[in-house]
Design a protein that fits this description.
about 160 residues, 3-stranded antiparallel β-sheet, MarR family transcriptional regulator
Length: about 160
């Protein structure tokens, strides 16, 4: 059991170090890793409501609103009225946002290539498979927890 915790601690350590390095390199190009997630989402899926962004990225609606406010101030996104719901706004990436996102992607990719170059192709394939298994297991656990929570809510409602 001790080895499990040692490995998980190393994974968290790796994640935080990579996250910090990637964030620094992207910020030097004009957009943080966090802000780039919003821009990337909008560039791939196109204009959408902030509630759609919150749901897709698993962020609180207030967090998304604050992020969009900042991105809009920097002219990286723009809001327009939703033609189907006058209370809502449609958010889309601007041309400036696309340019900034593209500029920040290059150092991110370069840095990740440099980090993962420590592994040969066989090790990289093995790591990919191992991480995939762990992702699948966390999805199974999440599904069980969600089902148990839903069952508990139904029991309470009765």
């Amino acid at each position: 059991m001790k080895k499990t915790f040692e490995v998980s601690d190393r994974l968290f350590e790796l994640y935080h170090r990579v996250h910090r390095l990637v964030n620094e390199s992207m910020t030097e190009e004009g957009v943080s890793l966090a802000r780039s997630k919003f821009l990337f989402f909008l560039s791939k899926l196109g204009p959408c409501r902030s509630t759609d962004i919150a749901c897709a990225l698993n962020f609180a609606p207030r967090t998304v609103t604050e992020a969009i406010d900042g991105l809009e101030r920097d002219r990286l996104v723009m809001r327009k009225p939703d033609p189907e719901d006058r209370r809502a706004k449609i958010v889309s990436i601007t041309e400036t946002g696309r340019v900034v996102l593209e500029a920040a992607e290059h150092p991110r990719k370069q840095l990740l290539e440099e980090i993962f170059s420590a592994l040969d192709d066989e090790e990289l394939d093995a790591l990919f498979d191992i991480v995939g298994k762990l992702v699948d297991r966390t999805d199974e656990i999440r599904k069980r927890k969600d089902e148990a929570e839903e069952a508990a809510q139904i029991a309470i409602a009765r």
